[in-house]
Specification:
alpha+beta; Jelly Rolls; 5 helices
Amino acid sequence: MEARKLAVQGALEFTSRTFSDERGVFVAPFQQSVFETARGGPLFAVAQGNHSLSRRGVVRGIHYTVAPPGAAKYVYCASGRSLDFTVDIRRGSPTFGKWEAVLLDQSGFRAVYLPIGVGHAFVALTDHTVMSYLTSAPYVAEQELALSPLDPALGLPIPEDIDPILSERDAAAPTLAQAAERGLLPDYELCLELEAQLGTASRAER
């Protein structure tokens, strides 16, 4: 497995080695030792695993968890094909407002790590696109917020041949500038503090 830093501070991309034979393919989309070396810290305690199934054109996000508590995520595409967006929405971040798009599919077998406070979105490029997540915090509805994935100031590169299918919540979500005006964005320094605490509990138990 190889790791690469993304344009968003603290976010990482991982590409797994595949093993193919006449039966098919075997791949390990997560490897703890590589992850911890790239992140420079221990694996976060996994609080929840999520799984979504989407048809072509579905856009989910931009989603994030209020901080505190915040939530880190490790995301990969188990089936299908998606264009995944990592968006820095942390006030005070050196990469605030920047994003990076990563193609997640069964060819490159890439995965993305999103640190606390970073926004996440994706567009399903095929029917039956399955996205799998490991998160450092359980889902609590009132702590989950959204920004518009169609915010023209961000300019996320949703393919022109895609007619975006959004939930009511995501369609009505504020732009990055509107969320900033309303005080809805996470603070970068606080997110770094929360990020540094990830994995400390599991270390102490060893």
